[in-house]
Design a protein that fits this description.
The protein is mostly beta strands. It has one helix at about 10-15; strands spanning about 40-45, 55-60.
Length: about 70
């Protein structure tokens, strides 16, 4: 959860992208990350018109670009 961090320097000090590529990292509030990993999956939650539901949009980048997420 990056919500409480103030700037990119704070994120860099966490070292969250220094670990192996064999790990899954789930980041809430990623807007502060200036240089996002090339191979990643973005999951966007949007409010819908219904009070108790959300729309989910899944977008792949890098090696995930052509993956058919809508078939999951």
């Amino acid at each position: 959860d990056l919500y409480r961090l103030k700037n990119y320097k704070d994120i860099f000090q966490l070292g969250m992208f220094e670990t192996s590529n064999d790990h899954i990292k789930i980041v809430e509030w990623p807007e502060l990350i200036e240089s996002k990993p090339h191979n990643r999956i973005d999951i966007l939650f949007q409010y819908s018109k219904l009070m108790n539901s959300r729309k989910v949009k899944i977008i792949g980048f890098g090696k995930w670009k052509d993956y058919k997420f809508h078939e999951i």
